[in-house]
Every structure is written in C-alpha cells, then in structure tokens.
Design a protein that fits this description.
InterPro entries: Asp23. The protein has 134 residues and is α+β, with helices and mostly antiparallel strands. Helices cover 25% and strands 35% of the residues. α1 crosses α2. It is elongated and about 60 Å long.
Length: 134
C-alpha cells in the first residue's frame, strides 16, 4: 500500500501516453521580434491608426509600411514603443488609447506575458486621399 505505479495520477494524451506535468515539460521562450510583430499587427488593426509613409533619405516612396515598433521583453514583462499614423480628423488621444489597449490585450492573450507599458508616438497624420503631414 502507498506505492504508485509509474504514470498513475497523470493525464494521458490521445495516444494513451502519459503526459508530463507542465513543470516538467521544459520552457517556451518568445523572442522580442515575435512580440514586436504582434504589437505591429494589433496597432494596424485599430480603427483610425495606420502605418507610416515609406522613404529613403527623406525622399517619399509609394506605399506604406507597418507601424514602427521597439519591443523589449524582460522575463515575463513587455515594454513597447509604437510609431504610427492617425487618420485625420480622428481624435489622436482616443486612437492612441485604443491602440494601447489593443496591443496590451493581444500580447497578453497570445503570449501570456504581462505588458507593463505601451508608448505611442504619432509620427504622421494621414489626410483623406492618402496624403500625410509629418
């Protein structure tokens, strides 16, 4: 009595194999680059915000690029900076807050990391017709 057979009390997967508890499975590392892509996508999906004009040496090029992001992951804590455009005449403060909330929710839901801070830099105002004001 008191003896346990190997695997007793552990969950089994579909193949009938014994699954190890989460603490024994190893660890998952999520790079800053992956989190930066999640941040850029979440910012892009927020109504009223958008990417930035493309340019080389100050000369404008056709098309737009994604919002510029700078993300740091320290253990389980994320800090992010996002440079983006806001569609004119949308209220800049409201758009920035929606981006902040969306980024925080998306990163935490997809990675399980805690977002401590999201700084927003409104680098451009996008006028109707695609013209921008820097």
């Amino acid at each position: 009595m008191g003896e346990r057979a190997e695997g007793e009390g552990r969950a089994q997967d579909e193949g009938g194999r014994t699954a190890r508890p989460p603490g024994e499975r190893g660890r998952t590392a999520i790079s800053d680059r992956v989190v930066a892509r999640i941040v850029a996508k979440a910012a892009e999906e927020t109504a009223g915000s958008g990417g930035l004009d493309r340019s080389v040496l100050g000369v404008g090029l056709p098309g737009r690029r994604a919002a510029r992001t700078d993300v740091r992951v320290h253990g389980q804590i994320v800090t992010a900076k996002v440079a983006l455009s806001v569609a004119y005449p949308m209220p800049v403060r409201d758009v920035a807050q929606r981006v902040r909330d969306g980024v925080r929710a998306r990163v935490e839901a997809l990675t399980g990391l805690t977002v401590r801070q999201v700084d927003i830099d409104v680098a451009e105002l996008e006028r109707p017709g695609g013209r921008t004001v820097s």
